[in-house]
Amino acid sequence: MTGFRGVRLLVLAAAFWAVAASATAAGVDLFGERRPVTTESSLQQGIELYQAGRSEEALGLLRGFVVRNYNSPQLPTAYLYLGRIFFDQGRPDEALLYLERIPAAQRTQELTLLEGAALVHTGEAERGLSLLQQVAPDGLPSRDRALFYGAMAEAKGRQGRPLESLALLHQGLLSTAAPEAEKLLAQAHGLVQGQLSDAELAEAAFMFRGTPIGADVNLKLAEQALAGGDRQRAQQLADEAVRSNAAFPYRAEAASLLDRSSGSSYLQRAVGVLLPLSGRYATFGQLVRRGMELALEIHNQSAPAVQLLFRDSGAEPEDSAREVAELANGQRVMAIAGPLTGGAAAAAATRAQQERVPLLTLSQRDGLPETGPYVFRNSLTNLQQVQTLVRYAVGEKGLRRFAILFPENKLGYEFAELFSREVEAFGGRVVAREGYAEKATDFRRQVRLLKGENPDAPEKEAKPGQAPARPEAPFDALFIPDYADQVGLVAPQLAFYGLDKLPLLGINGWNSPDLLRVAGRYVEGAVFADGFFLASSNPVVREFVALYTAKYGEEPSILEAQGFDAAGILLSVLDRPEVRSREDLLQALTQLRDYPGVTGTTGFNGQGECEKGLFLLQVQNGEFRQIN
């Protein structure tokens, strides 16, 4: 043990006892709930928290386990995860303090890999390399495989053998996927930028031709050629880098260099559009396309022309990913709009992030903007609807107690959870919640349970000529996240059980003439949120409806409206004089606020999710009226 490590061990020991002194009888599980931590469970909870990405919380539990269980046969497992956490945090010395305490008889491939990688990071390349060479990477999970190749490459680099480093990183790229692959590419980029001689760069360009590393090498050679005044060679090399079919993360830099060396813009004044133009969702795709083409027609009448290049998002997610690459590199578009469906959107988002081309998706699939900074969403989401409703009910009307009557399907459960959370965040309470079968036609039992009544008790007899006496509902409003046809069956039964005066709250699925036709007076006064209202008094909406109806001979739905807005947002951003590259466009989208769309004023939060002012609609005298 080195002197440095001895000191660090004393520090860690002190930290252990501090943890022990402050250890409580409770921990926080993966869902944020506090639960008792026993000796037996703290290790497992620590591992689960680490695997969920909550390293700091895992660190506290695992340290506590080590302090309290110094004779436990499970100590090597705790040491291994503590070593992993410190390694992940860029603290290889502290990682080694734990890893080196694991007995030789209990060594595993995982331990050898971590110890070897940590040694390389501390500068002990020879010792680290000798350990890493004992590891068989093919049997490792993707993350550890990337760690293996990255550490091996770093060791070779420290030995002054950068071409071998690049070869190892190339091997790693062949057997890993994002996000590990991105880290390996970043490591290769560092080598290409700073550690290769001119002769080595030339050799690397030959060795790795057609790969992401080869494209990166061409970019470096192009930079050198331009700096040396050879614009023709710079242009040729930059063009090769830009047109590479590989997932090359520095394509934007290559395009910029190509612009400088050729004196013209590489990117077209064009936007790619991915929509379902064939198959079961083709009708929806065509409606969105109509809205986009109307937006383009209006734009090109008064601004420099832009092209919309439509492509079919296809039947498989891989189809949309391939189209993203072709639009980004073959058609050289500034940005891409779409896709509409979840699977296609997820694949397109991943590829758009790799290609660094801004993507404005129209899908409601969870987690799309979280794919990366190049991915934005312009679509009505369930959370937006709930937030608009709760702001109205709690903030404006002062209601505090709510009940939820929901269909027992994915939509119903999601809305029920979102509504409960939002009500609580606004200081209200959900006091009752009942679900019903998706195709149910009788809701008496659920309604009586909501009111706190015995659903099996016999109905009280009503006096002749009078309605049965009903106790007052223990809540101020009822939320029903279902579609118009089903709400039409529920509403009359609510009235029968004395809830006819209770405010009803709904979702955009209520925005249908069927609701008025089937439920009639039973939904009078009901309120719901939607992303588009055909009869809105908003002049922007009125103009859109008039233009669309004149062009296509029928009224638009929310699909055409969303297409109109998605195209309008991208076209408006493209018109800004400062937007000359995809990065400029990305920045402009990030800063967009209060875009006057027909689906509500629109901006984007820091994660790329749209923030909209939705339409709040109420049933008044048998018609839908906008009340905001």
From TrEMBL:
- The record's region (Disordered) falls at 450-470
Q: Which residues does UniProt assign to the signal peptide?
A: 1-25
Specify one Pfam family. Peripla_BP_6
Q: Bias category Basic and acidic residues: which stretches?
A: 450-463
The Leucine-binding protein domain sits at: 271-622
Keyword Signal on entry? yes
Record keywords: Translocase included? no
The UniProt keyword set, sorted, is: Signal
Q: Supply the InterPro entries for this chain.
A: BCAA_transport (IPR051010), Leu-bd (IPR028081), Peripla_BP_I (IPR028082), TPR-like_helical_dom_sf (IPR011990)
What PANTHER family does this protein map onto? LEUCINE-SPECIFIC-BINDING PROTEIN, PERIPLASMIC BINDING PROTEIN OF ABC TRANSPORTER FOR NATURAL AMINO ACIDS
Membership in a protein family? Belongs to the leucine-binding protein family.
Name this protein carries in UniProt: Leucine-binding protein domain-containing protein
Q: Which organism is it from?
A: Desulfuromonas versatilis
